[in-house]
Specification:
There is one protein chain. This protein has 515 residues and is mainly α. It has two domains: 27-214 and 301-306, Growth Hormone, Chain: A, CATH 1.20.1250; 313-504, MFS general substrate transporter like domains (Growth Hormone, Chain: A, Up-down Bundle). It has 23 helices and no strands. The chain has helices at 5-8, 34-53, 55-66, 70-86, 88-98, 100-118, 124-153, 158-166, 168-187, 189-200, 202-208, 215-228, 238-249, 251-275, 280-310, 320-349, 353-358, 361-380, 387-404, 411-424, 431-439, 444-473, 477-514.
Amino acid sequence: MYASREDIGYDFGDDSKVGSKPIKPNPNIDGGWAWMIVLSSFLVHILIMGSQMALGILNMEWLEEFNQSRGLTAWVSSLSMGITLIVGPFIGLFISMCGCRKTAIIGGILNALGWILSAYASDVHYLFLTFGVTAGIGSGMVYLPAVVMVGQYFQKRRALAQGLSTTGTGFGAFLMTALLKYLCIEFGWRNAMFIQGAISLNLCVCGALMRPLSPKDISEKYVVRSNSEDNQEKALSHSAETIKSNGALGEEPEKKEDATNEEVLDSVQHTESGGKSRGGRNMYGLRVLKTVSQLTVTVRKGFAIWYSSYFGAASLFTNRVFVAFIIWALFAYSSFVIPFIHLPEIVKQYNLSSQNNIFPLTSIIAIVHIFGKVILGIISDLPCVSTWNVFLTANFTLVTCILTLPLMQTYVSLAVVCALIGFSSGYFSLMPVVTEDLVGTKHLANAYGIIICANGISALFGPPFAGWIYDITQKYDYSFYISGLLYTVGIVFLLIQPCIQKKQPREKSTEEAQV
Protein backbone atom coordinates (compact mmCIF):
# COMPACT_ATOMS: atom_id res chain seq x y z
CA MET A 1 0.00 0.00 0.00
CA TYR A 2 2.80 2.38 0.87
CA ALA A 3 6.08 3.10 -0.85
CA SER A 4 9.09 1.60 0.84
CA ARG A 5 12.36 3.34 1.58
CA GLU A 6 13.97 1.74 -1.47
CA ASP A 7 11.12 2.90 -3.71
CA ILE A 8 11.36 6.48 -2.57
CA GLY A 9 15.14 6.71 -2.81
CA TYR A 10 16.05 8.56 0.31
CA ASP A 11 19.77 8.78 0.87
CA PHE A 12 21.89 11.57 -0.59
CA GLY A 13 25.20 10.56 0.93
CA ASP A 14 26.10 7.02 -0.21
CA ASP A 15 29.27 6.56 -2.22
CA SER A 16 29.09 3.75 -4.71
CA LYS A 17 32.84 3.76 -5.32
CA VAL A 18 33.68 2.44 -1.89
CA GLY A 19 30.76 0.04 -1.70
CA SER A 20 32.71 -2.90 -3.10
CA LYS A 21 35.66 -2.63 -0.71
CA PRO A 22 35.42 -4.85 2.37
CA ILE A 23 36.19 -2.61 5.35
CA LYS A 24 36.08 -3.81 8.93
CA PRO A 25 33.28 -1.89 10.69
CA ASN A 26 34.11 0.25 13.70
CA PRO A 27 33.16 -1.53 16.97
CA ASN A 28 31.67 1.73 18.27
CA ILE A 29 29.01 1.73 15.52
CA ASP A 30 25.97 -0.23 16.75
CA GLY A 31 27.90 -1.14 19.91
CA GLY A 32 30.56 -0.06 22.39
CA TRP A 33 30.49 3.69 22.98
CA ALA A 34 27.28 3.93 20.93
CA TRP A 35 25.31 2.82 24.00
CA MET A 36 26.88 5.62 26.05
CA ILE A 37 25.54 7.99 23.40
CA VAL A 38 22.08 6.45 23.92
CA LEU A 39 22.44 6.97 27.69
CA SER A 40 23.50 10.59 27.14
CA SER A 41 20.52 11.24 24.85
CA PHE A 42 18.18 9.51 27.32
CA LEU A 43 19.31 11.84 30.13
CA VAL A 44 18.97 14.87 27.84
CA HIS A 45 15.36 13.93 27.13
CA ILE A 46 14.69 13.58 30.87
CA LEU A 47 16.21 16.95 31.75
CA ILE A 48 14.80 18.93 28.80
CA MET A 49 11.62 17.34 27.45
CA GLY A 50 10.64 15.90 30.83
CA SER A 51 11.02 19.30 32.49
CA GLN A 52 8.91 20.96 29.79
CA MET A 53 6.14 18.38 30.27
CA ALA A 54 6.13 19.26 33.99
CA LEU A 55 5.80 23.04 33.53
CA GLY A 56 2.14 22.87 34.56
CA ILE A 57 3.34 22.85 38.19
CA LEU A 58 5.21 26.12 37.73
CA ASN A 59 2.43 27.59 35.62
CA MET A 60 0.06 27.42 38.59
CA GLU A 61 2.67 29.12 40.77
CA TRP A 62 3.15 31.91 38.21
CA LEU A 63 -0.62 32.49 38.01
CA GLU A 64 -0.74 32.91 41.79
CA GLU A 65 2.37 35.08 41.97
CA PHE A 66 1.80 37.55 39.13
CA ASN A 67 -2.04 37.57 38.86
CA GLN A 68 -1.98 37.66 35.06
CA SER A 69 -4.40 36.07 32.61
CA ARG A 70 -4.11 32.37 31.86
CA GLY A 71 -3.43 33.07 28.21
CA LEU A 72 -0.53 35.44 28.92
CA THR A 73 1.02 33.18 31.55
CA ALA A 74 0.75 30.13 29.30
CA TRP A 75 2.98 31.83 26.73
CA VAL A 76 5.97 31.29 29.08
CA SER A 77 5.70 27.52 28.69
CA SER A 78 4.79 27.76 24.99
CA LEU A 79 7.83 29.94 24.27
CA SER A 80 10.17 27.54 26.05
CA MET A 81 8.79 24.49 24.21
CA GLY A 82 8.50 26.24 20.85
CA ILE A 83 11.92 27.93 20.85
CA THR A 84 13.60 24.66 21.85
CA LEU A 85 12.48 23.24 18.51
CA ILE A 86 12.31 26.37 16.33
CA VAL A 87 16.02 27.17 16.75
CA GLY A 88 16.88 23.78 15.19
CA PRO A 89 18.12 25.12 11.81
CA PHE A 90 20.39 27.65 13.52
CA ILE A 91 21.75 25.03 15.92
CA GLY A 92 22.71 23.11 12.77
CA LEU A 93 25.11 25.99 12.05
CA PHE A 94 26.73 25.60 15.48
CA ILE A 95 27.07 21.86 14.94
CA SER A 96 28.72 22.44 11.53
CA MET A 97 31.25 24.80 13.10
CA CYS A 98 31.85 23.40 16.61
CA GLY A 99 30.56 19.84 16.54
CA CYS A 100 27.86 18.24 18.68
CA ARG A 101 29.92 18.00 21.89
CA LYS A 102 30.81 21.70 22.21
CA THR A 103 27.33 22.81 21.10
CA ALA A 104 25.68 20.63 23.77
CA ILE A 105 28.00 21.83 26.56
CA ILE A 106 27.36 25.49 25.70
CA GLY A 107 23.63 24.77 25.53
CA GLY A 108 23.70 23.11 28.96
CA ILE A 109 25.26 26.22 30.50
CA LEU A 110 22.73 28.48 28.76
CA ASN A 111 19.78 26.33 29.85
CA ALA A 112 20.93 26.33 33.48
CA LEU A 113 21.43 30.11 33.32
CA GLY A 114 17.86 30.55 32.08
CA TRP A 115 16.44 28.55 35.00
CA ILE A 116 18.56 30.40 37.58
CA LEU A 117 17.76 33.89 36.23
CA SER A 118 14.05 33.01 36.17
CA ALA A 119 14.18 32.54 39.94
CA TYR A 120 14.51 36.34 40.25
CA ALA A 121 11.58 37.17 37.93
CA SER A 122 9.56 40.25 38.86
CA ASP A 123 6.80 39.74 36.27
CA VAL A 124 5.68 37.42 33.47
CA HIS A 125 7.45 39.45 30.78
CA TYR A 126 10.76 38.87 32.58
CA LEU A 127 10.07 35.12 32.31
CA PHE A 128 9.50 35.49 28.57
CA LEU A 129 13.14 36.53 28.20
CA THR A 130 14.87 34.39 30.83
CA PHE A 131 12.89 31.16 30.70
CA GLY A 132 11.16 31.30 27.32
CA VAL A 133 14.08 32.57 25.24
CA THR A 134 17.30 31.90 27.20
CA ALA A 135 16.42 28.47 28.58
CA GLY A 136 14.63 27.61 25.33
CA ILE A 137 17.67 28.31 23.16
CA GLY A 138 19.88 26.39 25.59
CA SER A 139 17.52 23.41 25.43
CA GLY A 140 17.62 23.48 21.64
CA MET A 141 21.43 23.51 21.65
CA VAL A 142 21.46 20.27 23.66
CA TYR A 143 18.44 18.52 22.19
CA LEU A 144 19.47 18.51 18.51
CA PRO A 145 23.02 17.16 19.12
CA ALA A 146 21.55 14.43 21.35
CA VAL A 147 19.37 13.22 18.47
CA VAL A 148 22.03 13.64 15.77
CA MET A 149 24.71 11.71 17.68
CA VAL A 150 22.46 8.66 18.06
CA GLY A 151 21.90 8.71 14.29
CA GLN A 152 25.66 8.87 13.67
CA TYR A 153 26.55 5.96 15.97
CA PHE A 154 23.87 3.50 14.82
CA GLN A 155 23.20 1.85 11.47
CA LYS A 156 21.45 -1.51 11.95
CA ARG A 157 19.53 -0.65 15.13
CA ARG A 158 18.87 3.05 14.62
CA ALA A 159 15.11 2.88 15.32
CA LEU A 160 15.60 0.91 18.54
CA ALA A 161 18.38 3.26 19.70
CA GLN A 162 16.29 6.36 19.01
CA GLY A 163 13.32 4.71 20.71
CA LEU A 164 15.31 3.95 23.86
CA SER A 165 16.83 7.42 24.04
CA THR A 166 13.54 9.27 23.52
CA THR A 167 11.77 7.28 26.25
CA GLY A 168 13.49 9.76 28.53
CA THR A 169 10.64 12.15 27.72
CA GLY A 170 8.09 9.88 29.41
CA PHE A 171 10.31 9.06 32.38
CA GLY A 172 11.20 12.74 32.72
CA ALA A 173 7.56 13.77 32.74
CA PHE A 174 7.05 11.64 35.88
CA LEU A 175 10.34 12.43 37.61
CA MET A 176 10.34 16.18 36.96
CA THR A 177 6.66 16.60 37.85
CA ALA A 178 7.24 14.94 41.22
CA LEU A 179 10.51 16.82 41.77
CA LEU A 180 9.16 20.28 40.91
CA LYS A 181 6.04 19.68 42.99
CA TYR A 182 8.14 18.67 46.01
CA LEU A 183 10.57 21.58 45.59
CA CYS A 184 7.76 24.12 45.24
CA ILE A 185 6.07 22.86 48.42
CA GLU A 186 9.28 22.71 50.46
CA PHE A 187 11.23 25.72 49.18
CA GLY A 188 8.89 27.83 47.05
CA TRP A 189 8.85 28.16 43.25
CA ARG A 190 11.81 30.59 43.09
CA ASN A 191 14.18 28.30 44.98
CA ALA A 192 12.76 25.37 43.02
CA MET A 193 13.81 27.01 39.74
CA PHE A 194 17.23 27.80 41.19
CA ILE A 195 17.74 24.16 42.20
CA GLN A 196 16.46 22.96 38.82
CA GLY A 197 19.03 25.24 37.17
CA ALA A 198 21.78 23.52 39.16
CA ILE A 199 20.41 20.12 38.11
CA SER A 200 20.37 21.26 34.48
CA LEU A 201 24.15 21.67 34.58
CA ASN A 202 24.24 17.89 34.20
CA LEU A 203 23.43 18.59 30.55
CA CYS A 204 27.09 19.61 30.21
CA VAL A 205 28.08 16.12 31.37
CA CYS A 206 25.73 14.62 28.79
CA GLY A 207 27.37 16.80 26.14
CA ALA A 208 30.84 15.69 27.21
CA LEU A 209 29.81 12.08 26.54
CA MET A 210 29.07 12.92 22.89
CA ARG A 211 32.44 11.80 21.56
CA PRO A 212 32.59 12.58 17.84
CA LEU A 213 33.26 9.89 15.26
CA SER A 214 36.30 10.33 13.04
CA PRO A 215 35.74 10.87 9.27
CA LYS A 216 37.11 7.34 8.73
CA ASP A 217 34.45 5.90 11.05
CA ILE A 218 31.69 7.76 9.23
CA SER A 219 32.93 6.52 5.85
CA GLU A 220 32.90 2.96 7.21
CA LYS A 221 29.28 3.47 8.22
CA TYR A 222 28.44 4.46 4.67
CA VAL A 223 30.12 1.27 3.41
CA VAL A 224 27.99 -0.86 5.75
CA ARG A 225 24.87 0.90 4.53
CA SER A 226 25.75 0.49 0.84
CA ASN A 227 26.51 -3.21 1.31
CA SER A 228 23.19 -3.82 3.07
CA GLU A 229 21.15 -1.86 0.52
CA ASP A 230 22.59 -2.87 -2.87
CA ASN A 231 19.58 -1.85 -4.90
CA GLN A 232 19.06 1.55 -3.32
CA GLU A 233 21.03 3.53 -5.91
CA LYS A 234 18.73 2.38 -8.72
CA ALA A 235 15.79 4.12 -7.05
CA LEU A 236 17.48 7.45 -6.31
CA SER A 237 15.29 10.42 -7.15
CA HIS A 238 16.15 13.30 -9.48
CA SER A 239 16.54 15.65 -6.52
CA ALA A 240 19.14 13.37 -4.94
CA GLU A 241 21.08 13.23 -8.19
CA THR A 242 21.06 17.03 -8.30
CA ILE A 243 22.58 17.23 -4.86
CA LYS A 244 25.23 14.63 -5.67
CA SER A 245 26.23 16.40 -8.87
CA ASN A 246 26.40 19.70 -7.05
CA GLY A 247 28.61 18.15 -4.39
CA ALA A 248 31.03 16.97 -7.09
CA LEU A 249 31.09 20.38 -8.74
CA GLY A 250 31.58 22.10 -5.40
CA GLU A 251 34.72 20.19 -4.46
CA GLU A 252 37.06 22.36 -6.55
CA PRO A 253 36.22 25.74 -4.94
CA GLU A 254 36.30 24.18 -1.49
CA LYS A 255 39.78 22.77 -2.09
CA LYS A 256 40.99 26.15 -3.31
CA GLU A 257 39.58 27.82 -0.22
CA ASP A 258 41.23 25.25 2.04
CA ALA A 259 44.55 25.79 0.27
CA THR A 260 44.26 29.54 0.76
CA ASN A 261 43.43 29.09 4.46
CA GLU A 262 46.41 26.77 4.90
CA GLU A 263 48.70 29.32 3.28
CA VAL A 264 47.51 31.93 5.78
CA LEU A 265 48.19 29.59 8.71
CA ASP A 266 51.60 28.64 7.32
CA SER A 267 52.54 32.28 6.96
CA VAL A 268 51.48 32.91 10.55
CA GLN A 269 53.53 29.93 11.74
CA HIS A 270 56.55 31.13 9.75
CA THR A 271 56.23 34.60 11.24
CA GLU A 272 55.86 33.03 14.67
CA SER A 273 59.11 31.09 14.29
CA GLY A 274 60.89 34.25 13.19
CA GLY A 275 59.39 36.21 16.03
CA LYS A 276 60.99 34.04 18.70
CA SER A 277 64.12 36.13 18.45
CA ARG A 278 62.24 39.39 18.89
CA GLY A 279 60.76 38.77 22.27
CA GLY A 280 57.85 37.34 24.22
CA ARG A 281 55.39 40.12 23.38
CA ASN A 282 55.52 39.41 19.67
CA MET A 283 55.11 35.70 20.39
CA TYR A 284 51.89 36.33 22.32
CA GLY A 285 50.47 38.49 19.56
CA LEU A 286 51.32 35.93 16.89
CA ARG A 287 49.72 33.13 18.85
CA VAL A 288 46.53 35.17 19.17
CA LEU A 289 46.63 35.84 15.43
CA LYS A 290 47.11 32.15 14.71
CA THR A 291 44.18 31.21 16.96
CA VAL A 292 41.95 33.80 15.31
CA SER A 293 42.96 32.52 11.86
CA GLN A 294 42.15 28.93 12.79
CA LEU A 295 38.82 30.01 14.25
CA THR A 296 38.03 31.95 11.08
CA VAL A 297 38.74 28.88 8.95
CA THR A 298 36.46 26.73 11.13
CA VAL A 299 33.64 29.28 11.05
CA ARG A 300 33.88 29.73 7.27
CA LYS A 301 33.81 25.98 6.63
CA GLY A 302 30.89 25.41 8.98
CA PHE A 303 28.91 28.30 7.53
CA ALA A 304 29.58 27.08 3.98
CA ILE A 305 28.17 23.63 4.80
CA TRP A 306 25.18 25.12 6.61
CA TYR A 307 24.45 27.66 3.86
CA SER A 308 24.72 25.11 1.04
CA SER A 309 22.35 22.76 2.87
CA TYR A 310 19.63 25.38 3.19
CA PHE A 311 20.13 27.93 0.42
CA GLY A 312 22.69 26.58 -2.03
CA ALA A 313 22.16 24.54 -5.17
CA ALA A 314 22.44 21.43 -2.98
CA SER A 315 19.49 22.59 -0.92
CA LEU A 316 17.56 19.99 1.02
CA PHE A 317 14.40 21.58 -0.34
CA THR A 318 15.04 20.08 -3.79
CA ASN A 319 13.85 16.77 -2.30
CA ARG A 320 10.08 16.94 -2.62
CA VAL A 321 9.50 14.09 -0.17
CA PHE A 322 11.47 16.02 2.43
CA VAL A 323 9.39 19.15 1.72
CA ALA A 324 6.24 17.08 2.23
CA PHE A 325 7.77 15.86 5.50
CA ILE A 326 8.18 19.49 6.63
CA ILE A 327 4.53 20.29 5.80
CA TRP A 328 3.47 17.25 7.81
CA ALA A 329 5.59 18.41 10.78
CA LEU A 330 3.86 21.82 10.78
CA PHE A 331 0.56 20.17 11.73
CA ALA A 332 1.56 17.00 13.58
CA TYR A 333 3.10 18.07 16.89
CA SER A 334 0.23 20.27 18.08
CA SER A 335 -2.11 17.26 17.87
CA PHE A 336 0.05 15.58 20.53
CA VAL A 337 0.49 18.68 22.74
CA ILE A 338 -3.15 19.85 22.77
CA PRO A 339 -4.46 16.80 24.73
CA PHE A 340 -1.82 17.34 27.43
CA ILE A 341 -2.98 20.93 27.92
CA HIS A 342 -6.76 20.68 27.54
CA LEU A 343 -7.60 17.19 28.86
CA PRO A 344 -7.89 18.39 32.50
CA GLU A 345 -10.55 20.91 31.45
CA ILE A 346 -12.42 18.28 29.41
CA VAL A 347 -12.41 15.91 32.38
CA LYS A 348 -13.75 18.69 34.57
CA GLN A 349 -16.60 19.44 32.13
CA TYR A 350 -17.59 15.76 32.07
CA ASN A 351 -17.55 15.56 35.91
CA LEU A 352 -14.84 12.89 35.88
CA SER A 353 -12.38 14.69 38.17
CA SER A 354 -12.59 12.11 40.98
CA GLN A 355 -11.59 9.26 38.66
CA ASN A 356 -8.97 11.38 36.91
CA ASN A 357 -7.36 12.27 40.24
CA ILE A 358 -6.77 8.57 40.95
CA PHE A 359 -5.05 7.97 37.61
CA PRO A 360 -4.77 11.06 35.37
CA LEU A 361 -5.40 10.62 31.65
CA THR A 362 -2.21 12.53 30.84
CA SER A 363 -0.27 9.98 32.88
CA ILE A 364 -1.79 7.20 30.78
CA ILE A 365 -0.53 8.95 27.64
CA ALA A 366 2.95 9.38 29.14
CA ILE A 367 3.26 5.76 30.32
CA VAL A 368 2.06 4.14 27.10
CA HIS A 369 4.13 6.64 25.13
CA ILE A 370 7.28 5.08 26.60
CA PHE A 371 6.31 1.58 25.47
CA GLY A 372 5.14 2.88 22.09
CA LYS A 373 8.56 4.33 21.29
CA VAL A 374 10.41 1.13 22.17
CA ILE A 375 7.97 -1.27 20.48
CA LEU A 376 7.69 0.78 17.29
CA GLY A 377 11.48 1.03 17.21
CA ILE A 378 11.87 -2.75 17.52
CA ILE A 379 9.27 -3.36 14.80
CA SER A 380 10.94 -0.86 12.45
CA ASP A 381 14.32 -2.57 12.83
CA LEU A 382 12.93 -5.90 11.59
CA PRO A 383 14.45 -6.70 8.16
CA CYS A 384 11.07 -7.43 6.59
CA VAL A 385 9.39 -4.22 7.83
CA SER A 386 9.61 -0.75 6.28
CA THR A 387 10.18 2.10 8.73
CA TRP A 388 8.18 4.35 6.40
CA ASN A 389 5.13 2.06 6.62
CA VAL A 390 5.32 1.85 10.42
CA PHE A 391 5.63 5.63 10.58
CA LEU A 392 2.54 6.19 8.41
CA THR A 393 0.46 3.56 10.23
CA ALA A 394 1.19 5.21 13.59
CA ASN A 395 0.21 8.59 12.13
CA PHE A 396 -3.11 7.23 10.87
CA THR A 397 -3.84 5.75 14.31
CA LEU A 398 -3.01 9.01 16.09
CA VAL A 399 -5.13 11.23 13.84
CA THR A 400 -8.07 8.83 14.22
CA CYS A 401 -7.78 9.07 18.01
CA ILE A 402 -7.63 12.88 17.90
CA LEU A 403 -10.81 13.03 15.80
CA THR A 404 -12.71 10.56 17.98
CA LEU A 405 -11.60 11.83 21.41
CA PRO A 406 -14.37 14.51 21.69
CA LEU A 407 -16.98 11.76 21.20
CA MET A 408 -15.84 9.91 24.34
CA GLN A 409 -17.62 11.04 27.52
CA THR A 410 -16.77 8.28 30.02
CA TYR A 411 -13.51 7.79 31.86
CA VAL A 412 -12.97 4.27 30.46
CA SER A 413 -13.48 5.33 26.84
CA LEU A 414 -11.24 8.37 27.30
CA ALA A 415 -8.59 6.16 28.92
CA VAL A 416 -8.63 3.78 25.93
CA VAL A 417 -8.27 6.63 23.43
CA CYS A 418 -5.50 8.23 25.51
CA ALA A 419 -3.65 4.90 25.61
CA LEU A 420 -3.85 4.69 21.80
CA ILE A 421 -2.65 8.31 21.55
CA GLY A 422 0.32 7.49 23.78
CA PHE A 423 1.26 4.36 21.85
CA SER A 424 0.84 5.77 18.33
CA SER A 425 2.71 8.96 19.22
CA GLY A 426 5.70 6.70 19.79
CA TYR A 427 6.47 7.38 16.13
CA PHE A 428 8.46 10.38 17.39
CA SER A 429 11.35 7.95 17.87
CA LEU A 430 11.18 7.13 14.14
CA MET A 431 11.40 10.75 12.99
CA PRO A 432 15.23 10.93 13.12
CA VAL A 433 15.41 7.55 11.34
CA VAL A 434 13.06 8.65 8.56
CA THR A 435 14.91 11.97 8.25
CA GLU A 436 18.27 10.20 7.96
CA ASP A 437 16.84 7.87 5.32
CA LEU A 438 15.64 10.89 3.39
CA VAL A 439 18.83 12.96 3.38
CA GLY A 440 21.69 10.79 4.66
CA THR A 441 23.84 11.10 7.76
CA LYS A 442 25.85 14.00 6.31
CA HIS A 443 22.78 16.25 6.15
CA LEU A 444 21.02 14.84 9.23
CA ALA A 445 21.81 17.75 11.59
CA ASN A 446 20.50 20.43 9.24
CA ALA A 447 17.55 18.37 7.99
CA TYR A 448 16.35 17.31 11.43
CA GLY A 449 16.84 20.90 12.57
CA ILE A 450 14.28 21.96 9.95
CA ILE A 451 11.86 19.23 11.02
CA ILE A 452 11.96 20.11 14.72
CA CYS A 453 11.69 23.80 13.77
CA ALA A 454 8.39 22.97 12.05
CA ASN A 455 7.36 21.00 15.15
CA GLY A 456 8.27 24.01 17.28
CA ILE A 457 6.00 26.28 15.26
CA SER A 458 3.23 23.74 15.72
CA ALA A 459 3.85 23.54 19.48
CA LEU A 460 4.04 27.34 19.79
CA PHE A 461 0.77 28.21 18.08
CA GLY A 462 -1.26 24.99 18.42
CA PRO A 463 -2.39 25.24 22.08
CA PRO A 464 -3.21 29.00 21.95
CA PHE A 465 -5.18 28.36 18.75
CA ALA A 466 -7.13 25.58 20.49
CA GLY A 467 -7.86 27.93 23.39
CA TRP A 468 -9.02 30.64 20.98
CA ILE A 469 -11.43 28.17 19.34
CA TYR A 470 -12.79 27.33 22.80
CA ASP A 471 -13.33 31.02 23.60
CA ILE A 472 -15.46 31.32 20.44
CA THR A 473 -17.44 28.06 20.60
CA GLN A 474 -17.26 27.31 24.36
CA LYS A 475 -16.38 23.73 23.38
CA TYR A 476 -13.11 21.85 22.99
CA ASP A 477 -14.65 19.56 20.38
CA TYR A 478 -13.89 21.86 17.46
CA SER A 479 -10.30 22.30 18.62
CA PHE A 480 -9.70 18.58 18.20
CA TYR A 481 -11.64 18.38 14.95
CA ILE A 482 -9.73 21.26 13.32
CA SER A 483 -6.31 20.06 14.52
CA GLY A 484 -7.19 16.53 13.36
CA LEU A 485 -8.18 17.74 9.89
CA LEU A 486 -4.97 19.77 9.54
CA TYR A 487 -3.02 16.73 10.68
CA THR A 488 -4.80 14.67 8.00
CA VAL A 489 -3.71 17.18 5.35
CA GLY A 490 -0.09 16.69 6.42
CA ILE A 491 -0.42 12.90 6.15
CA VAL A 492 -1.92 13.24 2.65
CA PHE A 493 1.20 15.15 1.58
CA LEU A 494 3.33 12.26 2.85
CA LEU A 495 1.30 9.83 0.78
CA ILE A 496 1.21 11.84 -2.45
CA GLN A 497 4.88 12.82 -2.81
CA PRO A 498 6.39 9.29 -2.60
CA CYS A 499 3.97 8.17 -5.34
CA ILE A 500 5.04 11.05 -7.60
CA GLN A 501 8.71 10.41 -6.84
CA LYS A 502 8.29 6.70 -7.61
CA LYS A 503 6.70 7.37 -11.01
CA GLN A 504 9.43 9.74 -12.26
CA PRO A 505 12.02 7.07 -13.25
CA ARG A 506 9.31 5.13 -15.09
CA GLU A 507 8.24 8.22 -17.06
CA LYS A 508 11.85 8.92 -17.96
CA SER A 509 12.46 5.38 -19.21
CA THR A 510 9.29 5.55 -21.35
CA GLU A 511 10.53 8.73 -23.03
CA GLU A 512 13.93 7.15 -23.75
CA ALA A 513 12.21 4.12 -25.29
CA GLN A 514 10.24 6.37 -27.61
CA VAL A 515 13.43 8.14 -28.71
